Amino acid sequence: GLVVSVFQAATQINEQTLSFLPRLLITLTTLVLAGPWLGSLVHEFALKILMDMPTLLG
User: Fold this and answer.
1) So what's the pLDDT on residue 6?
2) Considering the domain boundaries, does residue 3 fall inside one?
3) What is the dihedral of CA 16, 21, 23, 25, to 10 degrees?
4) Each residue of 2-49: pLDDT tens digit?
5) Which pLDDT does position 21 carry in this prediction?
6) Helices (H) and strands (E) in the chain, counts
7) Which residues contact 8 (CB under 8 A, 6 or more apart)?
8) Which domain range does residue 27 map to?
9) How far apart are CA 30 and CA 49, in angstroms?
10) Is residue 32 part of a domain?
């Protein structure tokens, strides 16, 4: 919250002034770039939880 407020104040950009399309493109680009990395993290986490299930359940 504070970082966004400082950024908006420094650049004088409010969220309302940004149109929908640039925000959508930035979001999609971020998902495309970070998606494989995030997917591998979730996959590794799920495998660890499933493999540790017998230990956790006793």
Assistant:
1) 76
2) no
3) -170
4) 877 777 777 766 666 667 778 888 999 999 999 999 999 999 999 999
5) 76
6) 2, 0
7) 14, 15
8) 19-58
9) 27
10) yes
Tokens of 31: 């998902």
Q: For position 34, what pLDDT does the model report? A: 94
**What is the structure's pLDDT at 10?**
74
* Residue 26 and residue 32 in contact, taking contact as beta carbons nearer than 8 Å: no
Residue 35 DSSP SS3: helix
> What CA–CA distance (Å, rounded) separates 7 from 1?
10
Place of tokens 């420094």: 10
| Cα 33 from Cα 31, distance rounded (Å) | 6
In this prediction, residue 56 carries a pLDDT of: 84
Does residue 38 lie in a domain region? yes
Q: Please tell me the distance from the alpha carbon of residue 3 to that of residue 41, in angstroms, as a whole number.
A: 26
